[in-house]
Structure formats: C-alpha cells, structure tokens
Amino acid sequence: MGSLPLGYTAIEGIPQLRQRIAEDYPGSTADDVVVTTGASGGLTALFMALKALKAREVRNNDVVGEASADGQVAVAMARPGYPAYRNLLRSIGCGVVEMPCGMDTRFQPTAPMVEGMLAEHPEVAAVIVTSPANPTGTIIESDELEAIARVCQQRGVILISDEIYHGLEYTDHTCTSAWGMRGDVVEHNVVVVGSFSKFYSMTGWRVGWLLLPPSLRDMVVDIQGNLALCAPAVSQYAALGAFDSEEPQAHVAHYARNRELLSTALEGALPHAPIEGAFYAWVDVSSLTDDSEAWCNELLDRFRIAIAPGIDFDEVDGHRYVRISFCCDTTELGAAMDILAANYLKSTSIKPRLFNTEEHS
C-alpha cells in the first residue's frame, strides 16, 4: 500500500470501489454509489437527510401532501428488528413506527401490512426492510419485496432495503436486491444499504455503501462530509481487494455447517423462525422463562454462554425470545448446545452429547 494515497478520499469514496460495487447491481453506475463509514454511518447520514429534506419541504410549503404540518418524520420498521434503527432515529428526533411481525409472516412485513401502516401514519417518510434479517434470519420473498416496493412507490415513500447479509443464504429462499426493481417496478424511491462487515467478514474496517436515488444523493454526501468526511482510505482499498478473495465462500460454508448443527439442536425442542440467512436463529423460549434477559444473564453467569435477549430487538414481545448467533467456532457451538440440552431441555427429545463436534469442525 506504500504507493496508494491514504489521506482523505472523495466524500463519496474512491472511484474504483464505487465502480466495483456498482457492477454487482445491474443497471447502476458509480454515480449511484456512496461509500460510507460502515452501514451504520450510511444509515445515520440517510436518516439525517430524510429529516433535513422534510424540514426543507415544510419551509417551502404550508402543507406538504399528507405529512404533518410540523415536519415530523418517521421511519417504519419490522418488530422484531435491528435496534440501531430505532436508536439512530430517536437520537436525531425522528419517529419510529413499528410493524409487529410474527411467525405467520416469518417475522417479516408484508405488502398489506405496509399499506395499512402507511394509511394510519402519514408522517412515515421511509420503510426499512432487512433481508436476511437481524435478528430472525428470515428472507423476504422476491414477489413480496416487489409488492412492498410498489406500495411505497404509490404512497411516495422511500423504501430502504438493508442488504448487508446478502450472500449468507442457506435454503431455496434466495435474496433479491430491491435496486434491481428500479425502472420496471419503481422509479426513484429505493435506497440500498450494503456493508463489507458480514459477507466479507470485515468487521472493524468501517466501510459500507449506499445506493441512492438522485433526490437523496447530494444531501447524503453533504451530511457524510460533515460527520466523517469519508470512509477510512485504507479500508476502502482493502474492500476493493475483498471482491477477489475466496475467503468469504469458506466462511459461508462454515456458517452452513453451524446452521445445520443448531437446527438439529432446536428441532422439536424450541419453536424458532426459519433459519434462512444471515447467521442468527430467533428462538421462542417462553416454555423456559418469561424473562429472556434474566435467562440470558443466567446462561452467561453459570456457563459462560452468551446469547442476546429478545428485548434488544422487540421491546414488546422480546421477553419471550432470544437470538442465537452461529458465526462462532463449531466446537464451541456444539458444546453450548450440549449444555442447553442437559440443563434446560431435559423434557425434550434432545439428549446431552448429541453432537460429535469433530464431525462438524
């Protein structure tokens, strides 16, 4: 890297990386891409841009469409959902509208749900969907995503598609990028969020990207320039090299083995969302506890097993759920499942020492 310029880059990222990202989205160009300081940095700039644009509209108009006259902006999301969405939105004074999702919809929103929510909440400026999802690991079917995109288009609402777990898929349910629906389905209301942290395992490098319509791009670039100026230069060049690495596919194979192990452990023991993508299982532990946070603390204190309580992702019903991540060492995952089987699942068909971890290593 000695010959590479490692000072500040252009706010929107180095041209080579933007072009390479665009190549993964047919019909896009480097001008559609803004490289960000991780997906979180991109979301922060995006949410701030939505709020700023709404404030500009209110200044220019006494009443704007169906939006509230005071310029209140909200973003809708699924519940359960990634907590940083809520936290970021609330921190900048935006509202959060949650759509409760259950096992009947695989914990994902549907087009009728989105349509009904938008009818009740005219302040919603954007709907964010995540597929595969954190914490549930479920995938939105292509037809359903298209239907959601159409609803958003008809209501003049931005569809934000968080696709940071794309590439981490284990079933016949494959991911579709919302960006590919532009033109035939929708015009200029789709934003895609991407990251090098998950599929490329570049956590800590802090580099992600947004694909943006013209109506949002300049504002997002201006805000990023004030927040962070640019993503780290060294991370951008490293991310460019990641496209040619075979390592990500090896990681996916490892996650797939762990998924099989975890699925075997949970089968017939605890209800859970279909484990279709990402590296999470969303597990109903209401048969074991009515306080998943306390139960998780017990697991950590007694057995040094760390899983996430559902309350982090669902402030209403999360006390019944936990999120188990399987992006860990296979032997450690097998040992943890053995401990759960021996101490909490004795009445189920699972028996201790079910797992021969050598077979999965």
Question: What does this molecule look like?
Answer:
The chain has 361 residues and is α/β, with parallel strands linked by helices. The protein has two domains: 15-243, Type I PLP-dependent aspartate aminotransferase-like (Major domain) (Aspartate Aminotransferase, domain 2); 246-343, Alpha-Beta Complex (Aspartate Aminotransferase, domain 1), CATH 3.90.1150.10. It is 38% helix and 14% strand. The protein is built from eleven helices and ten strands. The protein has helices spanning 15-22, 38-60, 83-91, 111-120, 142-155, 214-227, 233-242, 247-266, 292-303, 330-343, 357-360, and strands at 33-36, 74-79, 95-100, 124-130, 158-162, 190-195, 208-211, 280-284, 308-309, 321-325. A seven-stranded mixed β-sheet has the order 1-7-6-5-4-2-3, sandwiched between helices. Helix 2 packs across helix 3. Residues 63-69 and 347-361 have low confidence and may be disordered. Belongs to the class-I pyridoxal-phosphate-dependent aminotransferase family. Keywords: Aminotransferase, Pyridoxal phosphate, Transferase. This is Aminotransferase. It holds the Pfam family Aminotran_1_2. It comes from Corynebacterium argentoratense DSM 44202.
Determine the N-to-C terminus distance. Answer: 35 Å
CATH architecture of the largest domain: 3-Layer(aba) Sandwich
Give the % helix.
25-40%
Structural class category: alpha/beta
Total domain modules: 2
Task: Write down the CATH topology of the largest domain.
Answer: Aspartate Aminotransferase, domain 2
pLDDT averaged residue by residue: 91
**Major sheet, described briefly?**
7 strands, mixed
Please provide the count of β strands.
10
Strand residue percentage? 5-15%
What count of helical segments does DSSP give? Answer: 11
Unreliable residue stretches:
63-69, 347-361
What do we call the CATH homologous superfamily of the largest domain? Answer: Type I PLP-dependent aspartate aminotransferase-like (Major domain)
CATH class type of the largest domain: Alpha Beta
- How are helices and strands ordered from N to C? HEHEHEHEHEEEHHHEHEEHH
Please state the overall shape, judged from the principal axes of the Cα atoms: globular
Q: Oligomer, anyone? A: single chain
For the largest beta sheet, what order do the strands appear in spatially?
1-7-6-5-4-2-3
CA-based gyration radius: 21 Å
